[in-house]
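Reader question, answered in our methods column.
A reader sent in the components of a multi-part assembly and asked whether the whole thing could be modeled at once rather than chain by chain. We filled in our standard form and ran it. Here is what they sent:
COMPLEX SIZE: two components
ENTRIES:
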Amino acid sequence: MPVVSLRDVSKVYPPTSKGGEPVVAIDGVSLDVEAGDVYGIIGYSGAGKSTLVRLVNALERSTSGEIFVNDRNIAGLPERELRGIRLGIGMIFQQFNLLNSRTVARNIAYPLEVAGMPKAERAARVEELLAFVGLSDKAGAFPDQLSGGQKQRVGIARALATQPSILLADEATSALDPETTHEVLDLLKRVNREFGVTIIVITHEMDVIQTIATKVAVMDQGQVIERGDVFDVFSNPQHAASARFVSTVVKGVPSPAELAVLQERHSGRIVTVSFRDSEVDQSAVFGEFTREGVSFEVVYGGINEIQGRPFGHLTLSLKADDVAVDAALARVRTLTNVTEAS
Amino acid sequence: MDALIELLPELWTASVETLYIVALTLFFGGLGGLAVGLGLYLTRAGSILENRPVFLVLNVLVNFVRPIPFIIFLAAAQPLARLVVGTALGNSAIIFTISLAAAFGMGRIVEQNLLTVTPGVIEAARSVGAGPIRIIFTVLLPEALGPLILGYTFIFVALVDMSAVAGYVGGGGLGNFALQYGYRQFNPIVTWAAVLLIIVLVQLMQFLGNWLARKALRR
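And here is the structure of the entire assembly that came back:
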């Protein structure tokens, strides 16, 4: 049962100047997010990720299509009704967006005030949240006295205050350094595991997806061009744009320029062999080459691990007569993917 | 100098009158300015109560009133003053007219101060289900409090200035005192005494404003 379900959703902005073209930010997107998912949405700037995530809590209104949140179609609901629905959807932001005029504790209490919780209960809940994000000693501090990572932890505590079932993370780690990024991602993992909160993460950083997402959708020009399990998309991207993204974090696939260098340096035929998970037996692959008397040398490569499942790419320089190499490659192709540099 | 000593009781009365006019106009003009500024801010494109017609009307109105020289505005607004406060003369009419002019001047300053609030903070408030009224009182005004205090300090100086000009058309206060006993009787010492008092008043308020703004900004 999906918690968030988009059905053929579009968002079109009116032209910015008279006689200009309307801007299609989201172009017929359908997407299901299941309860308990950490769903990553990735794409370059301007691909429509931010707009898409804001359609889920109706900070942006869709132009057409249906948006189901906990089985309720929120497309076209009046603003007043949406306010109640937003209490069930937390959101964190790239720039944290904390109120500088309020202390940490009062920032976290803000959604509870909006929800109308009595003051005494509010204080107890804030204390709980501060402990969860590890900032009990900062209750009385103001946001400008905190580091970026601390600010985002306050943001997470605020987003969780009303015990939402869904958390939207809009480039939540893009303003943080790598170490702090991992602290925040670990916290988000705990939010997902301990509270069962469904998380939608939008990011342009592939390693964020690699670290916490279970599923991923790749966006380009307002459309979802590829989606699936993170492992599948990473180990075998189908779309050129996804492949470009994946190559930023996946080690071991030589770029065309690197291939040219390899070809110059090595006299044999250059092929790249992919290994996914336990599907492919490495020794079987190497065995085929040996059987045909093909000598091989590993010239490039790398092994990655996503969600505990390894996959990798090895680029080999093969030396033997062409007939033997072709025969070996034909048999290896029945075992796994092989691409030969031309 | 002797003339000044003789005039001390009048100087005292004039000072009190100036304080009275400025305090009331700061209150009414300030509230009006807050309303105009919020109106401009909330109805502009992309804001939470976006409303193009209302914004255009307010914007044109502000641009229409602000450039009118105050001494001309005083005369031009007399019929309106008679309509609202029942008289076109004296301190009540002056207070009404200054408040009106200040509301439009302050409106623009309030609008600009509110624009310093990051839109993301408002989005965060919307994302937890806050409505427009709540956002105004719990996000916009508290977040812009420091700059707003400085804006009001700035308008205070303008109010002292306007109250002095109003002395020319029958309002009381230090402006009137300087004109009547100093300028018209060729007694520069008396004029300077009034000027000095005005400078002291403005300085005190500027210090107070800066101090409050620092408190609000916690710097």
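What stands out: The two ends of chain B are 45 Å apart (CA to CA). The mean pLDDT of chain B is 91.
Send us your own complexes using the same form.
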